Amino acid sequence: xKKQSGPSVFAIPNFRLLFGGSAISAIGDQFTLVAxxxxxxxxxxxxxxxxxxxxxxxxxxxxFMLIGGAVVDRMSPRRVLLVARAVNALLVTLLAALxxxxxxxxxxxYVIALGIGLSTAFTYPAGSAILPQLVQPQQLQPAxxxxxxxxxxxxxxxPLIAGLVISAGAHGDHGRILADATGLGLxxxxxxxxxxxxxxxxxxxxxxxxxxxxxxxxxxxxxxxSGIRTLWADLPLRAFxxxxxxxxxxxxxxxxxxxxxxxxxxxxxxxxxxxxxxxANGAGMLLGSALSGFATRWVSGRLGLLVxxxxxxxxxxLASLALVHSTVGGAVLLAATGALGGIxxxxxxxxxxxxVAPAMMGRTMSVLMFTFMGxxxxxxxxxxxxxxxxxxxxxxxxxxVLLSTIALTCMGSPALRSIGAAPVxxxxxx
Length: 430
What we know:
Blueprint: H1 13-44, H2 47-74, H3 77-100, H4 106-130, H5 140-169, H6 181-204, H7 208-211, H8 220-233, H9 235-265, H10 271-299, H11 303-319, H12 327-355, H13 361-386, H14 392-410, H15 414-417
Helix pairs in contact: 1-2, 1-5, 1-6, 1-9, 2-4, 2-8, 2-13, 3-4, 3-6, 4-13, 5-6, 5-10, 5-12, 9-10, 9-13, 9-14, 10-12, 11-12, 11-14
């Protein structure tokens, strides 16, 4: 891999604005990621209800993610991102207020989750499409590495502080109907405040498509269809998307539901345990991101095989969560899986960005994110219901063994094994 020359990406004012606003907002997001499942469990004590809330968030995200990608390709991703994050900020602010005044009810959480899911259907593809308009093509890889590193750092700092905030707030909640209400409300409030930094930076940024939007050809649904056709014609990319969807359905949901339930029922520090588990996973992913370039060079073009090998090992680690009864033990396992996942994530993301034509970036990334953020939480609803008839250890063992089995089976796929074998020209826009 050739070493980058030229000025740092931080010499670009628009990049500095986006990076700074996104960094603060990313830390705030971790507060909601910890607080929302904890709120549902404290309000209901029912893992099935948690699964349904995650599904309520995932359903509009899954339905509108592909449309969001097409809208981003037709418009300025900055403007789409600005509107979507403003909506998200209002919803989280409402959630914080309802929790703090003691008026929150389960049906309200469902409605807010639906709204957050709808806004994020546009946020994720817009966030992925804006970066190529801020930096030069040769700066994409270091820019992506910086953003991924920043997200992993937010996963280290955010959950730990969120868990402590929720636990500290619980001391003043004696006699209140909802346990941990004060801490939960503060956590949501911190996330809401963090959105102000992201919105401020987006208001100051200017990109090429603000003044020169892509010429509109056909309707939004036709654009979605053309994007799917283009992706489907790329055999290695198609194979990876199908593989990611399979993993997300059978593994993503059980993990999303299982970790909060593990912290609530088997660990010793309550919400702080959940924060520590998520922090450990984020720390591992940060380390993995730093090692990704070395690992990619080491496998010498066999990126697909590396990803499958990593997933087969991660599956065994996830199954081992069935044996965890301490926060430290769970943190060690999740740090290890995070490190392996970080190696694969940054390598695959850079491979896709270098492969896809800029005009198709929003639609391609929306399909990729649909597989993780649309399908995974939908399977969480099923996983939550399964916990009524199977134990938590059985859920972890089942998900882990399935991941290892899927990865080992897919090693027989030439399309997956060929990922990263040789550079190709980006697929033409459809």
